[in-house]
Design a protein that fits this description.
- The chain has 420 residues and is an alpha/beta fold.
- It is 36% helix and 12% strand.
- It has two domains: 137 residues, Alpha-Beta Complex (Aspartate Aminotransferase, domain 1); 263 residues, Type I PLP-dependent aspartate aminotransferase-like (Major domain) (Aspartate Aminotransferase, domain 2), CATH 3.40.640.
- Strands 2-8-7-6-5-3-4 form a seven-stranded mixed sheet, sandwiched between helices. Strands 9-10-13-12 form a four-stranded antiparallel sheet, with helices on one face.
- The radius of gyration is 22 Å and the shape is globular.
Length: 420
């Protein structure tokens, strides 16, 4: 384990020795009111724009201008098969094969699509296990799916763990609950990394316990994909969904992604809401009246892919392919560890760090409770720190290894000291 020092010179030395330092130059860094680069610690909400994004999008605009509708077949990257361009990269990021991953829809849209297939309630098994700290949009989707099937969400939602930012989830108690009540549970839906506390969950253990009790298991990876190493195929989770505008830097409203495990690839008994892009692509333009589903996750597609936002995503995925997740995670652990060290050493009596101290139980986000609450957060913003506030009392700080520096981390702590 690296021995940290609480000096700017030490941070500068870490930057000088960083093998990934050149990747920062591939992104546009917003400036603060002073005209200097902001300390951008909010990539867990919206990632920065790669400088290559405009070129990727311009290529599609040029092909649209040149070919019109024939761009579906004549474009440099034909639009009819455009979703295949990002499959290998997404597979590497989440630990799945090209048959198991696809870019489509939005996160919540994908969550609904997956629950159509993997929430199959019966009178004796109709409950969904989730966390009290789950992102509100997930709760809305879950409650609406339960009600759609004629059950009462207040009865059918088993909500586990602390409320809000009151603390981290005890995973041993969560698994004990699965053991005790698994026969009531149709679906377990757990975040890969908590949006509010930054806690990372042991998806493999949770999945194994759920499957042992006959439950389907899904995960929301909005704050995990591009942040921590994932191995969804080996973990065995039934499905996963994620957005692409946070750590994946796809831009606001970018196309999302989904994973369905290979064991379901040819299980055509699973109910789905079908659309023509899930129809056999070899026969798609024969305009057949009967649906002929694709093998694998592609059959969950309902519409052709939005080209422009996928081009944005591809620009960022190119960078991930070069940098590689193992290298990014190694830097992330050091950088977040440095931040934790500075906060503990210089501000321990003034702030509370909600996120687990164990590097294996977090990604790059640290969630802080600071004196002054939202006014303290607003002062940080005024001083050029881009971070975010989550009700009721959390300031989220995310040093992203692709474009943040160790000197960013040190200067942030200095500014936080000033604020407090």
């Amino acid at each position: 384990m690296m021995k940290f020092e609480s000096t700017l010179d030490f941070a500068a030395q870490l930057d000088a020795n960083d093998p990934l330092r050149s990747y920062r130059d591939q992104f546009y860094i917003p400036t603060s009111a002073s005209g200097k680069d902001s300390i951008y610690f909010v990539g867990n909400s919206l990632g920065l724009q790669p400088k290559s994004t405009a070129q990727r999008v311009q290529q599609e605009l040029d092909d649209w201008k040149k070919y019109g509708v024939e761009g579906h077949f004549e474009a440099k990257n034909p639009w009819v098969s455009y979703h295949h361009l990002v499959k290998k990269s997404l597979g590497r990021l989440v630990g799945g094969s090209s048959q198991e991953v696809v870019a489509m829809n939005t996160l919540t849209g994908n969550l609904h699509a997956m629950m159509v297939s993997f929430y199959q309630p019966t009178p004796s098994r109709h409950k969904i296990l989730l966390l009290n700290q789950s992102f509100p949009s997930d709760r809305y989707a879950i409650a609406s799916q339960i009600a759609f099937h004629g059950y009462d969400p207040s009865d059918a939602m088993i909500c586990f763990g602390p409320e809000g930012s009151e603390g981290v989830v005890c995973q041993e108690e969560l698994c004990a609950l699965i053991d005790q009540r698994g026969e009531e549970i149709a679906l377990i839906l757990i975040e890969g990394v908590s949006y509010i506390t930054g806690q990372r969950f042991d998806l493999k253990t949770i999945t194994n316990r759920g499957h042992a009790r006959g439950c389907f298991v899904g995960t929301d990876l909005a704050h995990a994909v591009g942040n921590v190493e994932l191995d969804l195929h080996d973990i065995g989770v039934d499905f996963a969904v994620w957005c692409s505008y946070k750590y994946l830097n796809g831009g606001p409203g970018c196309i999302a992604g989904a994973f369905v495990h290979d064991r379901h690839a040819s299980n055509f008994d699973l109910p789905i809401f079908a659309g023509w892009w899930g129809h056999d692509e070899k026969k798609r333009f024969l305009m057949e009246k009967d649906f002929s589903p694709m093998v694998g996750i592609d059959r969950w597609q309902v519409s052709n892919i939005p080209i422009m936002t996928t081009a944005c995503l591809q620009a960022s995925l190119d960078i991930f392919d070069c940098a590689t997740m193992p290298a990014l995670v190694e830097k992330s652990k050091t950088m977040t560890g440095f931040l934790f060290f500075l906060l503990e050493g210089r501000l321990k009596d003034k702030i509370s760090i909600v996120t687990p101290s164990n590097p294996e139980q977090r990604g790059c986000q640290l969630s802080l409770i600071i004196p002054g609450g939202k006014s303290g957060y607003e002062t940080l913003i005024a001083k050029g720190v881009a971070c975010d506030w989550r009700e009721p009392n959390v300031v989220r700080i995310a040093p992203v290894p692709l474009y943040n520096t160790y000197q960013d981390v040190y200067r942030f702590v200095e500014l936080l000291e000033e604020v407090l």
